[in-house]
């Protein structure tokens, strides 16, 4: 596929942003600034814009805090991907990063639990975690997945692709409905 074909594919699939590389605080700030401009270009305002930003921030924080290096022991090779696209009904925020295979079961259980809860149950679960001051070994309270589901109003779509005995590639897609 030549460059023009790649460009047309991105245009046809309404890809607003595509990033691959190391997620740093500078990259997070840059992406948020770019997305502000891009959302202006598609005339997205109000609560949908706010939901997209909230989900985007949570996704990027997950990439920043939970990505593993592709080569064990190398600190500065925590590569990840982020893509934001849309169709007539939804915005799609897709992330992908390496995780340790031993973390898959726990992460899958957390996402499946979040996906099984109603809007009201998600709100209660969120409060329960805050009230109990549960902090994970990575320093967070495991609120990110709950918050993404609450803000998007959608189930979280995910997949794990085994890379080797130690690592898998985790991809997560969050949909945010457009207002009509």
Give structural notes.
The protein is an alpha+beta fold and 180 residues long. The protein has a domain of 121 residues: 2-Layer Sandwich (Heat Shock Protein 90). Helices cover 47% and strands 24% of the residues. It has six helices and five strands. It has a five-stranded antiparallel beta sheet. Strand 4 and strand 5 form a beta hairpin. Helix 2 packs antiparallel against helix 3, helix 3 packs antiparallel against helix 6 and helix 5 packs antiparallel against helix 6. The longest helix has 21 residues.
List the helices and strands and how they pair.
Elements: H1 3-12, E1 15-22, H2 25-41, H3 46-66, E2 79-86, E3 90-100, H4 104-116, H5 119-132, H6 144-152, E4 157-162, E5 167-177
Antiparallel strand pairs: 1-2, 2-3, 3-5, 4-5
Helix pairs in contact: 2-3, 3-6, 5-6
Q: Can you summarize this structure?
A:
Helices cover 47% and strands 24% of the residues. The protein has helices at residues 3-12, 25-41, 46-66, 104-116, 119-132, 144-152, and strands at residues 15-22, 79-86, 90-100, 157-162, 167-177.
């Amino acid at each position: 596929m030549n460059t023009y074909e790649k460009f047309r594919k991105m245009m046809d699939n309404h890809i607003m942003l595509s990033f691959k590389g190391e997620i740093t605080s500078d990259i997070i700030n840059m992406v948020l600034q770019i997305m502000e401009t891009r959302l202006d270009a598609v005339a997205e305002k109000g609560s949908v814009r706010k939901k997209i930003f909230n989900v985007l921030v949570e996704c990027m924080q997950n990439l920043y805090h939970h990505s593993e290096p592709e080569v064990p022991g190398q600190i500065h090779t925590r590569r990840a991907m982020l893509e934001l696209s849309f169709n007539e009904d939804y915005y799609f925020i897709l992330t992908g990063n390496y995780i340790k295979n031993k973390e898959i079961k726990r992460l899958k259980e957390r996402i499946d639990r979040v996906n099984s809860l109603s809007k009201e149950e998600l709100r209660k679960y969120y409060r329960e975690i805050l009230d109990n001051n549960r902090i994970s070994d990575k320093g967070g309270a495991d609120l990110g997945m709950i918050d993404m589901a609450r803000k998007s109003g959608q189930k979280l779509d995910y997949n794990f692709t085994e890379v080797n005995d130690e690592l898998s590639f985790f991809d997560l897609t969050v949909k945010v409905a457009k207002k009509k």
